[in-house]
Amino acid sequence: MMLLIAGLLLWVAAHMFKRVAPDMRAPMGDPGKGLVAVLIVGSIVLMVMGYRRAEFIPLWYTPGALVHLNNLLMVLAFYVYGVGATKGLLSARLRHPQLTAVKIWAVAHLLVNGDVASVILFGGLLAWAVAEVVVINRAEPWDRPAEVSALGDVKALVIGLVLMVIVMAIHVWLGVWPFAGTRP
Questions:
Q1: What is the pLDDT of residue 182?
Q2: What is the mean pLDDT of the chain?
Q3: What distance in Å separates the CA atoms of residue 91 and residue 146, rounded to the nearest whole number?
Q4: What's the CA gap between 166 and 1, in Å, rounded?
Q5: Could you read off the pLDDT of 145-157 as tens digits, one per residue?
Q6: Over the range 90-117, which residues count as b (16 or more CB within 10 Å of their CB) and which as e?
Q7: Ramachandran region of residue 113, left (φ > 0), alpha (ψ -120 to 50) or beta?
Q8: Residue 28 DSSP code
Q9: What percent of the chain has pLDDT over 70?
Q10: Would you call 184 helix, strand, or coil by DSSP?
Q11: Do residues 53 and 161 lie in contact, with contact meaning Cβ atoms separated by under 8 Å?
């Protein structure tokens, strides 16, 4: 469980560094982006290793119908994530599409994974996404995109579906069937 927690803490620190300690981050310039990217990749590796090695301690058991809701929420999460890369109609209404996607993703996973490690991982990333939105909203105003079109939403859907297929393939490669529900 320690690897999982260490990975989660590293993820939060790497993402919050710019916002919480801007005076330390600013002098690092562009090379600092590389360092942050390495820390984020390292955090993902630690979270995956820690989650896979964690003992399964059940807190609740998932009703089968929630698996379908999870799958629907995952399509929505990947679509909303894609909105962050487009100028669609939704991008003019949603300030933090990628963080919103993480929140949807985390809730979807909590619906079908009721064990301690899942609560730490998905609950921790949900808490991080909420905190990140609060920190960003307090730090800077939002300039809504002025020029948006429905074509951007179509692009977001395509981006989201491509990302979803890639993530599902990674799940299968790791030995986790993405449509099954509770982890083994």
A1: 45
A2: 89
A3: 10
A4: 27
A5: 878 888 888 999 9
A6: bbeebebbbbbbbbbbbbbbbbbbbbeb
A7: beta
A8: G
A9: 97
A10: coil
A11: no
